[in-house]
User: Fold these one by one.
Assistant:
Number 1:
Amino acid sequence: MVTIPDRLPFIQSIRPSWYQYKVAELAMLRLDVVHPEISGNKWYKLKENVRHCLANNYNSILTFGGAYSNHLAATAACAEYFNLNSIGIVKGKYVSENLTPTLLKCRSLGMQLEFVSNEEYRKKADELYFKELKEKYNNPFVIPEGGSNDLGRQGAASIVGYIPSGYTHVALSVGTGTTLVGIVNNIQGGIKVLGYAPMKGGGYLNDELSGLISSGINYRIVSSAQTAGFGKWNDELISFMNDFYMSNNIPLDVVYTAKMMYFLKEQLEDGMFSGSDKILCIHTGGLQGNNSVAHKLVY
Ligand SMILES: *Cc1c(COP(=O)(O)O)cnc(C)c1O
């Protein structure tokens, strides 16, 4: 069995004062608590990949990510936990002196980091490039950027097991959309799934993902970029995160979940939901990404 024996996810109510009775219920599924390092949706996307590696006697995993990537950090921790070697193909020519906290963490967990030019990194989804890398690094199991493969979607599907019936909407942040697809294809009972993309024009994912989604399912992706784009933040977002923590005791991450909740609050205030709606937001983790703003946060 491939299990992380830490904590199980749980559902935590958001204080009614926060959503001012605009909907019947608002709660958060805390996937961020499953493991301090293999956190949130990343564990669910990795677990079937790891199971596959162990069953097929792979001794290493190779994957891709940027210098702040939650997926890279989670893969490094997961590989270490299951005694697999890991290789991270990192976008950008970083050197020891300018490694980000994420990359330092990956390295300390035993991940071999390989820095490639932005140009080479663009080949990250290219089958021929995968083949080259497999030869170069002694036949690792290759997981695409963001864990966005069938095994990733299968693992993400198991998140549905933590979503009780009775909710009208499930809200979650999207990057590659792997988690969203896994959930959308498995959710029952007419629950609508709302994806919040933390970059401008995140709606492009609607086209990219539509081929992976079973027809007739009710989902929609909106852009929740509150500032210029992916990974960007401003003081308003930071104070929103601090307020949210103080009123709900839930730490949000600056890249994904804070933008989702900020945008959701605007939607609530704009009357986008009906008073009988019950919304379950998914906390997809990613708190390691707060390292770069730690000095501004009260948590
Ligand atoms: C990676 C990540 C996402 C995006 O997940 P996808 O499956 O790629 O859509 C969302 N939230 C957090 C906190 C993440 O770290």
Number 2:
Amino acid sequence: MYKELTSFCTDNTIILVAVSKTRSNAAILDLYQKGQRIFGENRVQELKQKFETLPQDIDWHMIGHLQSNKVKQIAPFVKLIHSGSSLSLLKEINKQARNNDRIIDVLLQIKIGKEEAKSGWDKSELLEQFENQNISSLNHIQFRGVMGMATFTSDEEIVRSEFSELKSTFDQLSESYFNDQKSFDTVSMGMSGDYKIAAEEGATMVRIGSLLFQ
Ligand SMILES: *Cc1c(COP(=O)(O)O)cnc(C)c1O
């Protein structure tokens, strides 16, 4: 499956994040040996432990809900945070990045799915923060784009319309607040069950776990 997925991603110029949460170091090393260098985790403790025990040239992405009081633990090494989902969290990431003399890459997680439990910005709320310049002043963060999770449903049209909405939010942010800067280039959407639809709707990064590690 790894080969199939990497060629799908290459064909569509998409970056593959191998979601390795709950997987063993041995399983991760197996993919590493095949050439995979980007792995995503959703818990701080596990992310930190894997960073410390696996090869140093792995890029570690934080893809899950992040509590402000845990940012400190991953700030020295995390490569990309997909879950930038509130102003207080962004401020804490900015602060810890500054303490580590780093600029950390972050995606704005936007709520597109219907499940209440899913975190992320409401689009209107996010635009308001940009209008008030609360976000653009965080100069130890490099905003790279957006992330979202579609509703967990077998109805493809719902999934497609949510991905399409995320892509258009990305386009709007890029134009209005990032001057179409080249560094604002990432639309992280699509998982094992819906990555093909995500690709068709403009994903530039997919996060795949179960399909890769079965
Ligand atoms: C677990 C997870 C994934 C991967 O899900 P699969 O269905 O196993 O591919 C992607 N994104 C997030 C945020 C996750 O927590």
